[in-house]
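Journal club side-thread
Mid-discussion, someone asked how the predicted structure for our own chain would compare to the paper's figures. Pasting it here so we can look after the session.
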Amino acid sequence: MMIVENIPISIFWCFLIAIMVYEIFMYLRGQSSANWRPYPAKILKLGIEVRQDEDGFEESKPFTLYEYTVNRTTYKGSKIVYGDIWSSNYGKSFEDIKGLKKGSKITVYVNPKNFNMSVLKQGYRGNFYWFMGIMTIAMTLLLLRL
């Protein structure tokens, strides 16, 4: 019976570890984008996406679709920045795209090893340090419990 009781907690920890690995990947990718090369681009689409949960809590994030050319090949990208840019503050979402409009000429940063990868803003935005702190505490508590 002990194994059956531990299955839900095991699934929970697998889920948390998967999120941790994903956040580490996003953080590292965001850090590497600081070395990506700038290219001129054009905005094709621009807006703010809004979602609402069953409790009525609303979050928003900016979205964009842009087009850029590298070595006479045209690519499309939509990544604004690595990390989580969903926000409960609509104004913050608006700030990310303030001054931009469809058809605007912009600069995007392109991965020199993979031209399909680009970002509008270099770096990482998210709660990496908070998340890692919480995960460290949770893992410590789990190990102390064992």
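Post-session note: Residues 2-32 form the longest helix (31 residues).
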